[in-house]
Design goal:
306 residues; mainly alpha; 63% helix; Beta Polymerase, domain 2; 14 helices
């Protein structure tokens, strides 16, 4: 029987292929349309919404309308229109003001997710070229070979911690469903974060150009495949045994509906506790994998602490 990831990967790949066909017929020119989230990670199911945005020099409402129509014909569950997705972004704006006073949650989200899980829906060449520009922005010309891509690493860490803080705000003050956000944070968001740490670790002791090439290679792969290419399938198997359970539960519409409607004070709910307890095992295995992959002398060990 296929694993949870194998099933969601097959489903996601088929839907992404349909989306590409539709958008290819939408007369979008050289605009870049990309998806992030579960479809990009190859972890989607019928219940999943789709996160996407447009990269274009002009913020054309007609383009966004065309993209929405094309996408909704394949995936009816769209993201919230007041968030980071279903929007248009100018490429120059994504490369500027990193860490500045106007670098808000939406911009951090779009930038880091484009790097870590962005998957093209229209204009593959354009997306790959822009990802390279972003990496060149993070990895300066004079960086010593032995040094990690620390600017990028710090932004990845900042994004993950921002998600954790954002979870508290959305569930406490904004009254968003807490349980489903909680399990996503400790599974898919955590594995995405780990894949970023592991990828940056691979930039040690490489020339600047080789650092960029290595990250291009790794970031072009979905998160699970990226982790497999770094650590090997056997080493990743303990993490995946828990992750497959998470994906199976998230693929069940009844489980998703139950988690979305669970009252905040019901922490002993059986369904939630089963998934949450599995996340503790997954986190322990991720830590073990980190320690086994990068020994105590590796610079990533110090970089993620100090």
């Amino acid at each position: 029987m296929p694993s949870g990831y194998e099933r969601t990967r097959a489903f996601s790949k088929a839907r992404v292929a349909d989306l590409r066909d539709r958008l290819n017929s939408a007369n979008l020119g050289d605009r870049i349309i990309l998806t992030c989230g579960s479809y990009a990670r190859r972890e989607a199911s019928e219940s999943s919404d789709i996160d996407y945005f447009v990269l274009a020099d002009d913020r054309c409402d007609d383009t966004l309308d065309s993209v929405r129509r094309a996408i909704s014909g394949v995936v009816p569950n769209e993201p919230s229109t007041d968030g980071a997705f279903a929007s248009s972004v100018r490429p120059k704006e994504m490369l500027a003001n990193i860490g500045g006073q106007h670098d808000d949650n939406a911009k951090i989200t779009q930038r880091v997710l484009l790097l870590l899980e962005g998957e093209w829906l229209h204009n593959e060449r354009g997306l790959l070229a822009f990802r390279t520009k972003m990496l060149e922005r993070y990895i300066r010309q004079d960086m010593p070979d032995h040094q990690l891509a620390l600017f990028l690493l710090n932004d990845i860490i900042r994004y993950y911690r921002t998600m954790a803080v954002d979870y508290e705000f959305k569930t406490e003050e904004d009254d968003k469903p807490w349980a489903i956000r909680n399990v996503k944070l400790v599974f898919s968001r955590k594995l995405l974060y780990a894949s970023g740490l592991f990828s940056v670790a691979m930039t040690a002791d490489r020339t600047r150009d080789d650092k960029i090439r290595k990250l291009e290679e790794l970031f072009a792969q979905p998160v699970v495949e990226r982790m497999r290419s770094i650590c090997g399938s056997v080493a990743l198997s303990r993490v995946m045994s828990s992750y497959d359970i998470f994906l199976d539960r998230m693929s069940d519409p009844d489980v998703r509906s139950h988690l979305k409607t669970l009252a905040r004070d019901v922490r002993d709910d059986v369904t939630f506790r089963q998934i949450k307890n599995e996340s503790y095992r997954s986190t322990r295995e991720l830590l073990r994998l980190f320690e086994d992959t990068f020994d105590k002398t590796h610079p990533i060990r110090r970089a993620v602490v100090f």
